[in-house]
Design brief:
alpha+beta, 5-stranded mixed beta sheet
Length: 424
């Protein structure tokens, strides 16, 4: 067969003698080591310093000290509050690969209490009562006896809204994360209790000092709500509601009550702390919105990052929607004049983050890059100008978007490769 394609043997043979100090495409500086700091004696056959294998590493493990991604206090008004409490903490999505957020880097939104509840799972119970035939109280062991499910779902805070002030994608979009949640379907527990036909709403209450409680329609309870005790293969962390929380796929984060202790079935909407705390006098209806998205954001390249020069890059980001699975993602590399279909790096799932990417050859000229997504029920992410027109509100300098903000986020790339907020 007469093929011009380089064979594997030729690649391996030629790679060892490439000019310019390259071996199999690896630059010389990437091959050299600091032998003075290597630790092992000469002749040991290993030029790298050795990590300790102590009890902590054996018991739980640690990430490499070269990996420095951390969460940061979210830059919204009121955090930290007048008592010094940081209750919004943003995930470093600019450094994330794939679509699952590590439990240790999952974003946090809490009440203004001083401490998280320290709950002994052996003593914790979940009571389900109200409009049911058999009010029941479940221990953690009881919950784990029911058939379990494990599903990928994102959680996003309503405060996850970008403005011209945000410098990084962590500041603008870091209040969302995606994990694999394990637990029992709420519908399974309600069937065990015997749901009455008059039940049209349910209220989920947590054990926080300022009770987290939200009213939700019974149709959602019977659809896909999960009473979750696991995250990413291990028990929930305290910041995520240990030992049990409710997952309400696609609904904004405040509905996902942590430290869950009580569910009451009712026949009307109840005004609880969460709803009352989000009311604004000028609004004609509740400030809480249920469904998130559709939404997407480019995480590379994004704010404060820099492209070293013209050439090939893979634009990458995350997309999600409370309306179901993401169907398509489009990327524009010319400020929104032309849109190009991106590819998915993993299979889109209902109410979960999906990683998208688009191959791009940058010619070194100034431009703006954007992404937009469409979900499986036909909802398409809108430009900020479109939303302002729909709501018939002034298109002000601060680009304020009423309600939940799922508008397109632009990143501006300068000739020197620096990336800044395209709204600024």
């Amino acid at each position: 067969m007469n093929s011009k394609r380089t064979s594997r043997r030729e690649l391996l043979t030629g790679g060892a003698t490439l000019a310019g100090g390259l071996t199999l495409g690896v630059p010389v500086h990437a091959q050299t080591h600091d032998h003075h700091a290597s630790g092992p004696a000469s002749g040991s056959g290993n030029a790298y310093p050795m990590l300790p294998s102590d009890k902590a590493m054996v018991a739980y493990g640690e990430r490499s000290h070269f990996v420095t991604s951390v969460r940061i206090p979210h830059g919204s008004n009121g955090s930290p509050d007048e008592f010094g409490k940081t209750f919004h903490v943003a995930s470093p999505i600019q450094d994330q690969v794939g679509n699952i957020t590590p439990s240790s880097l999952h974003y946090i939104a809490t009440t203004r209490q001083a401490f998280l509840p320290d709950i002994d799972p052996k003593q914790h119970t979940l009571m389900i009562h109200g409009l049911v035939d058999r009010p029941l109280t479940f221990t953690m062991d009881d919950l784990k006896r029911f058939p379990s499910v494990s599903r990928l779902h994102f959680v996003e805070c309503a405060g996850n809204r970008h403005t011209p002030r945000h410098k990084t994608v962590q500041e603008s979009h870091g209040m969302t994360s995606c994990s694999e949640w394990t637990g029992v379907l709420l519908s399974t527990l309600l069937k065990e209790c015997g749901l009455k036909g008059s039940a049209t709403w349910f209220v989920a209450e947590g054990a926080e000092e300022v009770k987290g409680a939200s009213s939700m329609p019974i149709a959602k309870a019977m659809d896909d709500c999960i009473i979750a005790y696991g995250q990413n293969g291990v028990p929930l962390r305290p910041q995520q509601g240990f030992p049990v929380r409710i997952m309400v796929p696609g609904f904004e984060g405040i509905y996902h009550t942590k430290f869950l202790r009580r569910i009451k079935l009712v026949d009307r909407f109840y005004m609880n702390y969460n709803e009352f705390g989000h009311l604004r006098p000028e609004d004609k209806e509740l400030a809480l919105g249920e469904q998130i998205g559709p939404k997407s954001v480019i995480t590379y390249p994004s704010g404060t990052q820099r492209l070293p020069g013209p050439g090939f890059y893979e634009i990458s980001g995350l997309a999600w929607s409370g309306g179901g699975a993401v169907k398509t993602v489009e990327v524009s590399t010319d400020g929104g004049k032309k849109w190009n279909r991106a590819e998915f790096k993993n299979t889109p799932q209902r109410m979960a983050h999906v990683r998208f990417a688009y191959p791009w050859k940058w010619d070194g000229t100034e431009t703006a890059i954007l992404s937009r997504c469409t979900d499986e029920i036909g909802q398409r992410q809108a430009m900020r100008e479109e939303i302002a027109n729909w709501w018939k509100v002034p298109f002000e300098r601060d680009y304020r978007v009423p309600g939940l903000d799922n508008s397109v986020m632009p990143w501006k790339i300068a000739r020197d490769g620096s990336v800044t907020n395209g709204l600024a």
